[in-house]
Amino acid sequence: MTPILGCRTAALANARQVTSKQQRGFTLLEIILVLAIIATASILVVPNLGGFEARTFNTQLRQAQSLLNFARRTAVISGQASTVSFSVIPIDEIGQADTDDGHTSLSNIVAQWNGAGVTLRFRDSTDREIEIEETTEVTFFPEGGSTGGMLLFAQADQTGVIDIDPFTGRVSSRDSEEEL
Q: Which residues cross the membrane (predicted)?
């Protein structure tokens, strides 16, 4: 009986070696599972990459409005004029931001906004409009007024407007304007 049992275990060991040598690839189920995981990840990631520029522009617009509101509050609380400086950083041929603006800060500048890749125009209370190539400033006074005007932001196909009331210094924004 021993020889039969010995042959049986030898045959089982030999069968295991043969099956282990044959299983070198992946099963269809494993491949489908990996493809499903990749498809799910791409559904979650790709839409977020598409709106990156839009979110960046909206963030820059909100930051500009926040700096203007901060300067307005600072002027009223401190009793001294407060200024926000807006600088446009041009994008050179390589796509890098050129940060060498050589601008010297004055003592009443409480905040500075730097926009990379954004076109900025300023429209004063007399509807005179100028494109900002380097720097412009908006000043708020302690009694609540300001230099006023309208800041017109544009990047690719997006536009945004920030209105500054010259009498009250109130700052308001909207996403776009028809006459840009």
A: 26-46
